[in-house]
């Protein structure tokens, strides 16, 4: 799954689609309006993003609405932290007042 995700993220058009979706869900036509390319090309990029798990889609009447799948972004971030030798930030633990 990570290979597909990284391939999807490698394309600037797909990264721009993800950026557009960060503020909320959008219909395919609304997304396509931001690009100077055929709707079929935008549709292809949306399919790649769906296949990678980065976006989810649902049908509302005649429209297909796209949204970010933040779970996949968390998985990718964790993978990068793991290979980079880092760890995810931890919440500070409360210190006990008793003892020495």
Descriptive account of the structure:
With 100 residues, the chain is α+β, with helices and mostly antiparallel strands. It has one domain (2-84): Arc Repressor Mutant, subunit A, CATH 1.10.10.10. The chain contains five helices and three strands, in the order ααβααββα. The chain has helices spanning 2-9, 12-21, 28-32, 39-52, 70-84; strands at 26-27, 55-60, 63-68. A three-stranded antiparallel β-sheet has the order 1-3-2. Strand 2 and strand 3 form a beta hairpin. Helix 1 (2-9) runs antiparallel to helix 4 (39-52). The protein starts with a helix and ends in a 16-residue tail after the last helix.
Which helices and strands, and how do they pair?
Elements: H1 2-9, H2 12-21, E1 26-27, H3 28-32, H4 39-52, E2 55-60, E3 63-68, H5 70-84
Antiparallel strand pairs: 1-3, 2-3
For the structure shown, list the relevant keywords.
3-stranded antiparallel sheet; 3 strands; 14% strand; alpha+beta; 5 helices; Arc Repressor Mutant, subunit A; 100 residues
């Amino acid at each position: 799954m990570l290979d597909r995700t990284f391939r999807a993220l490698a394309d600037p058009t797909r990264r721009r689609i993800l950026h557009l979706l960060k503020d909320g869900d959008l219909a395919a036509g609304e997304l396509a309006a931001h690009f100077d390319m055929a709707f079929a090309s935008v549709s292809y990029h949306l399919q790649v993003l769906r296949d990678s798990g980065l976006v989810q889609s649902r049908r509302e009447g005649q429209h297909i609405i796209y949204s970010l799948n933040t779970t996949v972004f968390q998985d990718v971030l964790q993978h990068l932290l793991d290979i980079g030798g880092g760890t995810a930030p931890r919440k500070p633990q409360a210190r006990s007042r008793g003892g020495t």
